[in-house]
Protein backbone atom coordinates (compact mmCIF):
# COMPACT_ATOMS: atom_id res chain seq x y z
CA UNK A 1 0.00 0.00 0.00
CA UNK A 2 1.41 3.38 -0.99
CA UNK A 3 0.89 6.15 1.56
CA UNK A 4 0.25 9.45 -0.22
CA UNK A 5 0.31 13.01 1.03
CA UNK A 6 -3.40 13.44 0.24
CA UNK A 7 -4.61 10.56 2.41
CA UNK A 8 -1.95 10.82 5.13
CA UNK A 9 -4.14 12.99 7.37
CA UNK A 10 -7.15 10.68 7.01
CA UNK A 11 -5.04 7.62 7.87
CA UNK A 12 -3.57 9.43 10.89
CA UNK A 13 -7.03 10.31 12.22
CA UNK A 14 -8.25 6.77 11.53
CA UNK A 15 -5.47 5.20 13.61
CA UNK A 16 -6.02 7.77 16.36
CA UNK A 17 -9.73 6.86 16.47
CA UNK A 18 -8.91 3.14 16.52
CA UNK A 19 -6.41 3.65 19.36
CA UNK A 20 -8.94 5.62 21.42
CA UNK A 21 -11.63 3.00 20.77
CA UNK A 22 -9.31 0.16 21.83
CA UNK A 23 -8.33 1.98 25.01
CA UNK A 24 -11.94 2.85 25.88
CA UNK A 25 -13.20 -0.71 25.33
CA UNK A 26 -10.23 -2.19 27.17
CA UNK A 27 -10.73 0.15 30.14
CA UNK A 28 -14.46 -0.62 30.26
CA UNK A 29 -14.11 -4.42 30.19
CA UNK A 30 -11.11 -4.35 32.55
CA UNK A 31 -13.08 -2.28 35.07
CA UNK A 32 -15.99 -4.71 34.77
CA UNK A 33 -13.67 -7.64 35.38
CA UNK A 34 -11.96 -5.83 38.28
CA UNK A 35 -15.33 -5.14 39.92
CA UNK A 36 -16.31 -8.80 39.62
CA UNK A 37 -12.97 -9.95 41.06
CA UNK A 38 -13.25 -7.42 43.89
CA UNK A 39 -16.68 -8.78 44.77
CA UNK A 40 -15.37 -12.35 44.70
CA UNK A 41 -12.47 -11.37 46.96
CA UNK A 42 -14.90 -9.72 49.36
CA UNK A 43 -16.89 -12.95 49.53
CA UNK A 44 -13.72 -14.97 50.13
CA UNK A 45 -12.64 -12.65 52.93
CA UNK A 46 -16.08 -12.84 54.55
CA UNK A 47 -15.83 -16.65 54.42
CA UNK A 48 -12.31 -16.43 55.82
CA UNK A 49 -13.52 -14.15 58.63
CA UNK A 50 -16.31 -16.54 59.52
CA UNK A 51 -13.89 -19.48 59.53
CA UNK A 52 -11.54 -17.54 61.79
CA UNK A 53 -14.39 -16.64 64.14
CA UNK A 54 -15.46 -20.29 64.37
CA UNK A 55 -11.91 -21.36 65.04
CA UNK A 56 -11.48 -18.79 67.84
CA UNK A 57 -14.86 -19.37 69.52
CA UNK A 58 -14.33 -23.18 69.53
CA UNK A 59 -17.94 -24.03 68.69
CA UNK A 60 -18.63 -27.69 69.37
CA UNK A 61 -19.58 -29.80 66.40
CA UNK A 62 -17.74 -27.60 63.90
CA UNK A 63 -15.65 -29.26 61.23
CA UNK A 64 -12.26 -27.84 62.26
CA UNK A 65 -10.45 -29.58 59.43
CA UNK A 66 -12.61 -27.67 56.93
CA UNK A 67 -12.25 -24.43 58.93
CA UNK A 68 -8.46 -24.76 59.04
CA UNK A 69 -8.44 -25.47 55.32
CA UNK A 70 -10.42 -22.28 54.63
CA UNK A 71 -8.14 -20.23 56.88
CA UNK A 72 -4.97 -21.60 55.32
CA UNK A 73 -6.33 -21.31 51.76
CA UNK A 74 -5.89 -17.54 51.69
CA UNK A 75 -2.40 -17.03 50.33
CA UNK A 76 -2.87 -13.92 48.19
CA UNK A 77 -5.13 -11.37 49.96
CA UNK A 78 -3.46 -9.28 52.69
CA UNK A 79 -5.62 -9.35 55.86
CA UNK A 80 -5.29 -7.90 59.33
CA UNK A 81 -7.52 -8.47 62.39
CA UNK A 82 -7.75 -5.81 65.09
CA UNK A 83 -9.78 -5.31 68.21
CA UNK A 84 -12.07 -2.41 69.07
CA UNK A 85 -9.07 -0.52 70.46
CA UNK A 86 -7.20 -0.92 67.11
CA UNK A 87 -4.76 -3.36 68.66
CA UNK A 88 -3.51 -5.71 65.92
CA UNK A 89 -4.34 -9.29 66.92
CA UNK A 90 -3.19 -11.20 63.82
CA UNK A 91 -2.22 -10.65 60.19
CA UNK A 92 -1.67 -12.70 57.06
CA UNK A 93 0.03 -12.13 53.66
CA UNK A 94 1.60 -8.89 54.88
CA UNK A 95 5.36 -8.46 54.51
CA UNK A 96 6.84 -6.70 57.53
CA UNK A 97 9.23 -3.92 56.63
CA UNK A 98 11.56 -2.43 59.20
CA UNK A 99 12.59 -3.57 62.67
CA UNK A 100 9.56 -2.18 64.54
CA UNK A 101 6.81 -4.70 63.76
CA UNK A 102 4.17 -3.06 65.99
CA UNK A 103 4.65 0.39 64.46
CA UNK A 104 4.55 -1.04 60.93
CA UNK A 105 1.34 -2.97 61.61
CA UNK A 106 -0.31 0.11 63.11
CA UNK A 107 0.54 2.10 59.99
CA UNK A 108 -0.73 -0.76 57.85
CA UNK A 109 -3.98 -0.82 59.82
CA UNK A 110 -4.58 2.89 59.16
CA UNK A 111 -3.86 2.30 55.49
CA UNK A 112 -6.28 -0.63 55.21
CA UNK A 113 -9.05 1.39 56.87
CA UNK A 114 -9.10 3.58 53.74
CA UNK A 115 -9.19 0.66 51.28
CA UNK A 116 -12.28 -1.39 52.14
CA UNK A 117 -15.10 -1.42 54.68
CA UNK A 118 -13.98 -3.74 57.51
CA UNK A 119 -15.78 -7.01 58.23
CA UNK A 120 -17.16 -7.25 61.77
CA UNK A 121 -16.51 -10.51 63.66
CA UNK A 122 -18.60 -11.13 66.84
CA UNK A 123 -16.73 -13.53 69.12
CA UNK A 124 -18.95 -13.09 72.19
CA UNK A 125 -21.85 -10.96 73.40
CA UNK A 126 -19.66 -7.92 74.00
CA UNK A 127 -16.52 -8.99 72.17
CA UNK A 128 -15.92 -7.83 68.62
CA UNK A 129 -12.99 -7.92 66.26
CA UNK A 130 -12.63 -6.33 62.86
CA UNK A 131 -11.02 -7.75 59.76
CA UNK A 132 -9.33 -5.34 57.36
CA UNK A 133 -8.06 -6.42 53.97
CA UNK A 134 -6.38 -5.13 50.81
CA UNK A 135 -6.75 -6.10 47.15
CA UNK A 136 -4.72 -9.05 45.95
CA UNK A 137 -1.66 -8.50 43.76
CA UNK A 138 -3.56 -9.89 40.75
CA UNK A 139 -6.41 -7.41 41.22
CA UNK A 140 -3.98 -4.50 41.56
CA UNK A 141 -2.20 -5.53 38.39
CA UNK A 142 -5.51 -5.77 36.59
CA UNK A 143 -6.35 -2.20 37.63
CA UNK A 144 -3.15 -0.94 35.98
CA UNK A 145 -3.64 -3.01 32.82
CA UNK A 146 -5.60 -0.35 30.80
CA UNK A 147 -2.89 2.23 31.47
CA UNK A 148 -0.20 -0.22 30.42
CA UNK A 149 -2.15 -0.99 27.29
CA UNK A 150 -2.61 2.74 26.65
CA UNK A 151 1.17 3.16 26.86
CA UNK A 152 1.68 0.38 24.33
CA UNK A 153 -0.91 1.94 22.00
CA UNK A 154 0.74 5.36 22.31
CA UNK A 155 4.16 3.89 21.48
CA UNK A 156 2.66 2.00 18.54
CA UNK A 157 0.88 5.14 17.35
CA UNK A 158 4.12 7.15 17.59
CA UNK A 159 5.89 4.54 15.46
CA UNK A 160 3.09 4.74 12.89
CA UNK A 161 3.23 8.53 12.96
CA UNK A 162 6.97 8.57 12.26
CA UNK A 163 6.48 5.96 9.55
CA UNK A 164 3.80 8.04 7.82
CA UNK A 165 5.87 11.21 8.29
CA UNK A 166 8.79 9.48 6.56
CA UNK A 167 6.48 8.30 3.80
CA UNK A 168 5.14 11.84 3.38
CA UNK A 169 8.64 13.28 3.21
CA UNK A 170 9.65 10.62 0.70
CA UNK A 171 6.60 11.46 -1.42
CA UNK A 172 7.39 15.17 -1.28
CA UNK A 173 10.92 14.38 -2.47
CA UNK A 174 9.48 12.39 -5.37
CA UNK A 175 7.22 15.33 -6.23
CA UNK A 176 10.14 17.76 -6.30
CA UNK A 177 12.21 15.40 -8.44
CA UNK A 178 9.22 14.91 -10.71
CA UNK A 179 8.64 18.64 -11.00
CA UNK A 180 12.26 19.16 -11.96
CA UNK A 181 12.04 16.52 -14.66
CA UNK A 182 8.66 17.79 -15.82
CA UNK A 183 10.13 21.28 -16.12
CA UNK A 184 13.01 20.01 -18.23
CA UNK A 185 10.58 18.03 -20.36
CA UNK A 186 8.23 20.97 -20.86
CA UNK A 187 11.05 23.37 -21.74
CA UNK A 188 12.85 20.90 -23.99
CA UNK A 189 10.66 21.19 -27.10
CA UNK A 190 10.47 25.01 -27.47
CA UNK A 191 14.15 25.45 -26.54
CA UNK A 192 15.23 22.87 -29.13
CA UNK A 193 13.04 24.58 -31.68
CA UNK A 194 14.52 28.01 -30.93
CA UNK A 195 18.04 26.59 -31.15
CA UNK A 196 17.19 25.22 -34.60
CA UNK A 197 15.89 28.63 -35.65
CA UNK A 198 19.16 30.19 -34.44
CA UNK A 199 21.16 27.84 -36.64
CA UNK A 200 19.02 28.76 -39.64
CA UNK A 201 19.55 32.47 -38.90
CA UNK A 202 23.32 31.93 -38.67
CA UNK A 203 23.28 30.30 -42.09
CA UNK A 204 21.43 33.32 -43.45
CA UNK A 205 18.35 31.38 -44.51
CA UNK A 206 15.84 33.90 -43.17
CA UNK A 207 12.23 33.99 -44.31
CA UNK A 208 9.10 35.80 -43.19
CA UNK A 209 7.55 32.50 -42.04
CA UNK A 210 10.22 32.09 -39.38
CA UNK A 211 9.07 34.96 -37.14
CA UNK A 212 5.55 33.64 -36.40
CA UNK A 213 6.98 30.20 -35.63
CA UNK A 214 9.59 31.68 -33.30
CA UNK A 215 6.88 33.73 -31.62
CA UNK A 216 4.93 30.51 -31.01
CA UNK A 217 7.94 28.93 -29.30
CA UNK A 218 8.50 32.03 -27.15
CA UNK A 219 4.81 32.08 -26.22
CA UNK A 220 5.08 28.41 -25.32
CA UNK A 221 7.95 29.23 -22.95
CA UNK A 222 5.82 31.94 -21.36
CA UNK A 223 2.93 29.49 -20.88
CA UNK A 224 5.25 26.94 -19.26
CA UNK A 225 6.73 29.55 -16.93
CA UNK A 226 3.22 30.69 -15.94
CA UNK A 227 2.12 27.13 -15.23
CA UNK A 228 4.99 26.35 -12.92
CA UNK A 229 4.73 29.70 -11.16
CA UNK A 230 1.20 28.76 -10.07
CA UNK A 231 2.18 25.42 -8.49
CA UNK A 232 2.15 25.87 -4.73
CA UNK A 233 0.16 29.12 -4.83
CA UNK A 234 -3.51 29.87 -5.24
CA UNK A 235 -4.15 30.64 -8.94
CA UNK A 236 -6.60 33.25 -10.12
CA UNK A 237 -9.77 31.87 -11.68
CA UNK A 238 -11.94 33.75 -14.16
CA UNK A 239 -15.03 33.00 -16.28
CA UNK A 240 -13.61 31.29 -19.37
CA UNK A 241 -15.09 29.77 -22.50
CA UNK A 242 -14.27 26.08 -22.14
CA UNK A 243 -14.75 25.41 -25.87
CA UNK A 244 -11.92 27.75 -26.78
CA UNK A 245 -9.38 26.47 -24.22
CA UNK A 246 -10.16 22.81 -24.92
CA UNK A 247 -10.06 23.09 -28.72
CA UNK A 248 -6.83 25.14 -28.73
CA UNK A 249 -5.13 22.58 -26.48
CA UNK A 250 -6.32 19.61 -28.55
CA UNK A 251 -5.16 21.30 -31.76
CA UNK A 252 -1.76 21.99 -30.18
CA UNK A 253 -1.41 18.32 -29.21
CA UNK A 254 -2.57 17.16 -32.67
CA UNK A 255 0.17 19.19 -34.41
CA UNK A 256 2.80 17.54 -32.22
CA UNK A 257 1.48 14.00 -32.59
CA UNK A 258 1.65 11.42 -35.33
CA UNK A 259 -0.98 11.73 -38.08
CA UNK A 260 -2.00 8.16 -37.24
CA UNK A 261 -3.38 9.40 -33.92
CA UNK A 262 -6.58 11.45 -34.25
CA UNK A 263 -7.39 13.97 -31.51
CA UNK A 264 -10.85 15.57 -31.56
CA UNK A 265 -13.67 17.03 -29.48
CA UNK A 266 -17.41 16.40 -29.42
CA UNK A 267 -19.87 18.87 -27.83
CA UNK A 268 -23.21 17.42 -26.87
CA UNK A 269 -24.55 20.94 -26.34
CA UNK A 270 -24.62 23.73 -28.92
CA UNK A 271 -24.48 26.56 -26.41
CA UNK A 272 -21.13 27.99 -25.26
CA UNK A 273 -19.88 26.43 -22.03
CA UNK A 274 -18.32 28.76 -19.46
CA UNK A 275 -16.30 27.60 -16.46
CA UNK A 276 -14.51 29.49 -13.71
CA UNK A 277 -10.94 28.38 -14.46
CA UNK A 278 -7.30 29.25 -14.94
CA UNK A 279 -6.73 28.60 -18.68
CA UNK A 280 -2.96 27.79 -18.60
CA UNK A 281 -3.41 25.27 -15.77
CA UNK A 282 -6.49 23.64 -17.29
CA UNK A 283 -4.71 23.36 -20.65
CA UNK A 284 -1.94 21.54 -18.75
CA UNK A 285 -4.55 19.07 -17.48
CA UNK A 286 -5.74 18.30 -21.00
CA UNK A 287 -2.16 18.01 -22.30
CA UNK A 288 -1.19 15.52 -19.60
CA UNK A 289 -4.27 13.38 -20.26
CA UNK A 290 -3.47 13.40 -23.98
CA UNK A 291 0.21 12.54 -23.37
CA UNK A 292 -0.76 9.60 -21.16
CA UNK A 293 -3.22 8.42 -23.80
CA UNK A 294 -0.61 8.72 -26.58
CA UNK A 295 1.89 6.70 -24.51
CA UNK A 296 -0.79 4.05 -23.93
CA UNK A 297 -1.73 3.79 -27.63
CA UNK A 298 1.67 3.61 -29.25
CA UNK A 299 1.71 4.30 -32.98
CA UNK A 300 -1.98 4.80 -33.76
CA UNK A 301 -5.35 5.38 -32.17
CA UNK A 302 -7.79 8.12 -31.20
CA UNK A 303 -8.38 10.58 -28.38
CA UNK A 304 -11.80 12.21 -28.09
CA UNK A 305 -12.96 14.79 -25.55
CA UNK A 306 -16.74 14.65 -25.01
CA UNK A 307 -18.32 17.71 -23.38
CA UNK A 308 -21.80 17.46 -21.85
CA UNK A 309 -23.89 19.21 -19.21
CA UNK A 310 -25.40 17.56 -16.14
CA UNK A 311 -27.44 19.90 -13.96
CA UNK A 312 -24.98 22.59 -12.80
CA UNK A 313 -21.87 20.66 -13.78
CA UNK A 314 -19.81 20.34 -16.92
CA UNK A 315 -18.65 16.81 -17.78
CA UNK A 316 -15.49 16.41 -19.84
CA UNK A 317 -14.84 12.78 -20.78
CA UNK A 318 -11.40 12.21 -22.31
CA UNK A 319 -11.59 8.86 -24.06
CA UNK A 320 -8.68 7.02 -25.68
CA UNK A 321 -8.20 3.73 -27.52
CA UNK A 322 -5.13 2.71 -25.53
CA UNK A 323 -4.25 -0.43 -23.60
CA UNK A 324 -6.55 0.34 -20.64
CA UNK A 325 -6.07 0.33 -16.87
CA UNK A 326 -6.87 -2.54 -14.46
CA UNK A 327 -9.78 -1.71 -12.17
CA UNK A 328 -7.54 -2.16 -9.14
CA UNK A 329 -5.43 0.79 -10.34
CA UNK A 330 -8.28 3.29 -10.87
CA UNK A 331 -7.32 5.29 -7.77
CA UNK A 332 -3.58 4.65 -7.57
CA UNK A 333 -2.96 6.13 -11.06
CA UNK A 334 -3.21 9.56 -9.41
CA UNK A 335 -0.51 8.81 -6.83
CA UNK A 336 2.86 10.52 -7.31
CA UNK A 337 5.34 8.04 -8.73
CA UNK A 338 2.75 5.79 -10.39
CA UNK A 339 3.66 5.00 -13.99
CA UNK A 340 3.31 2.08 -16.39
CA UNK A 341 6.13 3.36 -18.63
CA UNK A 342 9.61 1.89 -18.46
CA UNK A 343 10.96 5.43 -18.30
CA UNK A 344 9.15 8.23 -16.51
CA UNK A 345 8.48 9.73 -13.14
CA UNK A 346 4.73 9.33 -12.89
CA UNK A 347 3.88 12.90 -11.92
CA UNK A 348 1.46 13.92 -14.71
CA UNK A 349 -1.79 12.52 -13.29
CA UNK A 350 -0.85 13.63 -9.77
CA UNK A 351 -0.58 17.22 -11.02
CA UNK A 352 -3.79 16.78 -13.00
CA UNK A 353 -5.69 15.74 -9.87
CA UNK A 354 -4.28 18.63 -7.85
CA UNK A 355 -5.09 21.21 -10.54
CA UNK A 356 -8.65 19.95 -11.01
CA UNK A 357 -9.63 19.28 -7.39
CA UNK A 358 -7.60 21.76 -5.32
CA UNK A 359 -7.37 24.68 -7.73
CA UNK A 360 -10.63 24.37 -9.68
CA UNK A 361 -12.76 22.71 -6.96
CA UNK A 362 -13.76 19.98 -9.39
CA UNK A 363 -13.33 16.24 -9.54
CA UNK A 364 -11.44 13.81 -11.76
CA UNK A 365 -11.60 10.02 -11.80
CA UNK A 366 -11.39 7.02 -14.10
CA UNK A 367 -14.93 6.69 -15.44
CA UNK A 368 -14.31 3.38 -17.18
CA UNK A 369 -11.49 1.33 -18.63
CA UNK A 370 -11.17 -1.97 -20.42
CA UNK A 371 -7.88 -3.74 -21.00
CA UNK A 372 -6.93 -3.65 -24.67
CA UNK A 373 -9.74 -1.23 -25.58
CA UNK A 374 -9.06 2.06 -23.82
CA UNK A 375 -9.73 4.36 -20.89
CA UNK A 376 -12.07 7.26 -20.18
CA UNK A 377 -11.16 9.93 -17.62
CA UNK A 378 -14.03 12.12 -16.42
CA UNK A 379 -13.54 15.73 -15.26
CA UNK A 380 -16.39 17.45 -13.43
CA UNK A 381 -16.35 21.26 -13.15
CA UNK A 382 -18.94 23.73 -11.91
CA UNK A 383 -20.72 25.43 -14.78
CA UNK A 384 -21.06 29.19 -14.97
CA UNK A 385 -23.97 31.05 -16.51
CA UNK A 386 -22.68 34.14 -18.30
CA UNK A 387 -25.36 36.64 -19.26
CA UNK A 388 -25.16 38.73 -22.39
Structure, explained:
- With 388 residues, the protein is an alpha+beta fold.
- The protein contains 8 helices and 11 strands.
- The chain has helices at 5-57, 64-73, 101-113, 137-203, 210-230, 242-255, 279-297, 348-359, and strands at residues 79-83, 88-92, 119-122, 128-133, 238-241, 261-267, 274-277, 301-310, 313-320, 363-370, 374-384.
- Strands 5, 6, 7, 8, 9, 10 and 11 form a 7-stranded mixed beta sheet that branches. It has a 4-stranded antiparallel beta sheet with strand order 2-1-4-3, with helices on both faces.
- Helix 4 (137-203) runs antiparallel to helix 5, helix 6 (242-255) crosses helix 7 and helix 7 (279-297) packs antiparallel against helix 8 (348-359).
- The longest helix is centred in the middle third of the chain and has 67 residues, at 137-203.
- It is rod-shaped, with a radius of gyration of 40 Å.
- Residues 1-5 and 342-346 have low confidence and may be disordered.
Element layout with pairings:
Layout: H1 5-57, H2 64-73, E1 79-83, E2 88-92, H3 101-113, E3 119-122, E4 128-133, H4 137-203, H5 210-230, E5 238-241, H6 242-255, E6 261-267, E7 274-277, H7 279-297, E8 301-310, E9 313-320, H8 348-359, E10 363-370, E11 374-384
Parallel strand pairs: 6-8
Antiparallel strand pairs: 1-2, 1-4, 3-4, 5-7, 7-11, 8-9, 9-11, 10-11
Helix pairs in contact: 1-2, 1-4, 4-5, 6-7, 7-8
